[in-house]
Amino acid sequence: MIKSSEGKSIGKRPEQQDSVGRMQLDNDFYVYVLADGMGGERGGRIASSTICKEFMAFFEKNKDMDNPEKLLEQAMSAANAALREKREEDYDLMGMGTTLIGVLLHGPSRIFHFVSVGDSPLYQLSSDGLKRINANHAYIEELKKMVEDGRMHPEELKTDPARNDITSALMGGNIEEVDFGTGILESGDRLLLASDGIQTLSDGPQGEIAAILKEKRRDSESAILALLDAVADKEEPYQDNTALILVAYGD
């Protein structure tokens, strides 16, 4: 049986710019979407909410699931086009954009497909522990390669002013990088869609996120609350918004 829960925290920011959406279709498919907006307080909120709304609206109209990856790409493109219209209608929104994680899950087979843009992480918890399964479209990945190649000292990575910049986002125009993937949920597995605010917690195979998900594995809502509480307990002075969707299969 597929269950899901969601939750958000504003952190230390003046406004919530993360948005989430989830729904069950009448053809045994489930849709989950998360977006982390940017571009000023108003712009970030509008960008993320527009993407989530339009992404789900696409699947309400298109339920032929013969090619899930193509559908995810079309849903992303439709949402991106809606974002472009809003930018063109209001000059103050020209700088807005958002990340995206979109997941399409077939309940009976437990096979899922995803599309992602930006740095929002998509995790799968399995018997092997917690693993990020989508690409991180962030400049820090290039910096890590420079460290590995000996072109940068590890200490420089920690202080590089561009380390948290993202290399791809939905902004109404061309999308620089898009990641597609597929997987299957085994009994007891969890999928966690998150904005990068969750990365205040350690996310290794046996890190803090994994420990909380394992401890609260029988109650998705409690797991969401425990994760948000754990982020708040870190008391980071500039804590970002955190948004989560937890998808659970089996005990």
Automatic annotation (TrEMBL):
SUPFAM superfamilies: PP2C-like
Gene3D superfamilies assigned: PPM-type phosphatase domain
Domain PPM-type phosphatase span(s) in chain numbering: 2-228
InterPro entries referenced in this protein's UniProt entry, alphabetically: PPM-type-like_dom_sf, PPM-type_phosphatase-like_dom
Database matches in PROSITE patterns: PPM_2
Name of the protein in question: Protein phosphatase
Species name: Desulfobotulus alkaliphilus
